[in-house]
Amino acid sequence: MIHLGNYNTLRITRFTDHGAYLDAGEIGEILLPKTYVRPEMRPDDEVTAFVYLDAKEKLVATFETPRACVGQCAYLRCTWTNEYGAFLDWGVMKDLFVPFREQKQTMEVNHCYIVYIYIDKQTGRIVASAKIERHLQPATLDTYCRGTKAEMLVWHKTPLGFKVIVDHKYQGQLYNNQILNTIHTGDHLTGSVVYVRPDGKLDMAIGAIGRTRYRDFADELLNALRLAPNATLPYGDHSTPEEIAERFGVSKKTFKRALGTLYRQRKIEINNKGITALNIEL
């Protein structure tokens, strides 16, 4: 079975002047254009390639890397428009089409938009939609619990913080008090679920939460000390929350908890100049 708009592992059947043909089962063969054929390739070799539709609506394989696959969301730049809609650069030769009916506002060239990529049931084509809400699902406690790690795509700013798209499927919220560094629409972040709301939306945090957060940052801090001149950094209880956030991207509470962990483990020394890693060969 071919997964359109995604990666497929296929067997090379033959070579021609046009490129290599790949076995697509009942569908027949898919062309891997000559541009992507490598000298070491032989018949019966298996290759993993991205499969999509070319300008003639024929299946074609490529080693180009799309910015997102079917079933995913991405922040993409509009490259051109016509009387039917807009076209976005998604990393492969043929631009991604967004019909007017799938635009929240008329898309403009060189502007970027968050879109969901899917296969249109009527035409069988790969298209995108800026009407993200239609394609997001409610999360459940069977899917996520507090502390579950997840990937986030920053969607847009709200008075409370930023809406995010979690794992390409669910709507989440990052609150202002969770955001220590500047973030923008289109940023990719790794975070954790704080709470699964009754409406299926997720309250999120950047990075880990709870004991895992403190333990992970303690390791990160120790590594930073090992790389610092004389294994010393000029930070400590005297540092402001803003200084801690700018240097380490964590709250001062997390920083102090990590300090306490490393101090109890006798891995650091704390003095009025800052913190120094112990037992490090300089």
Describe this structure in words.
The protein has three helices and 18 strands. With 282 residues, the protein is mainly beta. A five-stranded antiparallel sheet has the order 3-2-1-4-5, with no helix packed on it. Helix 1 (210-227) crosses helix 3 (252-264). The longest helix has 18 residues, at 210-227.
Number of strands: 18
Described by the principal axes of the CA atoms, the overall outline is globular
C-alpha end-to-end distance: 57 Å
Q: What's the pLDDT, averaged over the residues?
A: 91
**Oligomeric composition of the shown chains:** single chain
Secondary-structure element order, N to C = EEEEEEEEEEEEEEEHEHHEE
Features:
single chain; 282 residues; mainly beta; 5-stranded antiparallel sheet; 3 helices
Could you write a compact summary of the structure shown?
With 282 residues, the protein is mainly beta.
